[in-house]
From TrEMBL:
Gene3D superfamilies on file: Nutrient germinant receptor protein C, domain 3
Signal peptide span: 1-18
Protein's GO biological process: spore germination
Matches recorded under InterPro entries: GerAC_N (IPR057336), Spore_GerAC-like (IPR008844), Spore_GerAC-like_C (IPR046953), Spore_GerAC_C_sf (IPR038501)
Protein name: Ger(X)C family spore germination protein
Pfam family, one: Spore_GerAC
Sequence ranges assigned to domain Spore germination protein N-terminal in this UniProt record: 21-185
Localization, UniProt: Membrane
Domain Spore germination GerAC-like C-terminal: 196-373
Amino acid sequence: MKKIVILLCSLLCTACMAPEKIIEMQGISTIIGFDFLDDNTFKGTISLLQFDRKEENTSVTLSAEGTTSKQIRQKLEEQTSHDITSGQLRTILFNKNMAATVGISSFLDTMQRDSSISSLIFLAITDNAEETINNTNYEEYPEMGSYIYQLLDKHEKKEMLVNSNLHDFITTLYEIGIDPTLPIINNANGVAPSIDGVALFKEDKIVGSISLINTLYIKLFTNNKAFLGDITVEIATEELEKRGMAELNLSKSDSYKITLHPIKYKGNIEIKNPEFVHLNATISVSTLEFQPSTSVKNKDSLKKMEQLIGEALNKEFRYILEELKNLNTDPIGIGRKIRSIRKYSHLTEGDLRQNYSALKIKPNIQVEIKRTGLVD
């Protein structure tokens, strides 16, 4: 009897086994990109790794047109004898025009429903997804999917990106009072793709962009563990003279440049009322470079330098905040902070959008020089 039971169990287990997959028959997708054509038609481009010893190339790029991602996938399958698998898909690229015109949420919804695709897959924006994937000016990686993955992965590990994966983007997209961002991949002729900036979204559509360096003003209030990046501040010589700083023997037209390395920081969104907000932040830094070279040793000069740097950062931050208000995008999450206060929790997404452009926002960044590097 025991033998019969064991035999039946073994037969059942065999019946439940997944179908055999032969590695030589697999086309492993590492990156897919979508371009907007016209009349609601899209082009999908995919890079496949293949391990068939009969094939000369280890990777191949395929493109197909369709009205949905599933239709594009079906047409891509028709172009190869390999089974296209998504288990190693690491990056999805979206054409900038597509993201600005029709949005990307419908494509992301499909990706979310595919159990073989990780929620940590990278998302990025580029001018032309097909051209970016077909770029051959990359480094030692076997194909473009691997290169772009390593590029984005490096920046994410260094906490230089705000939103970069599917999970972060979707979470921010559907949260009231904050808008997502995505890295922009630049695909210039003759060079490998690089991160050129960060796309600003209003809901699921691009409305503008910001430089990667200037995302420090977003990270101050959204991620207290992110790397802000080294900061270069430019101060007019006449401003130094007004504060009685050490003479630098520069003409009136010249400026004084300081490069700073953030050690730690803390940001806080202070809601005075639904119409008035303070963005308070403190940044402790070490100085890396002075141009022209000088020494700031006494406490009085150091204090004045801290004030000048703070004023320069606040001036730039005010300009960026005005741009964000004009675009009606809120990557800092000011609306989310307003809604977190009980008496304002009834405000809807529409209420926050309507009030955002008229919102009075006062930045208040204070800088403390903890170390003066090699200057001393």
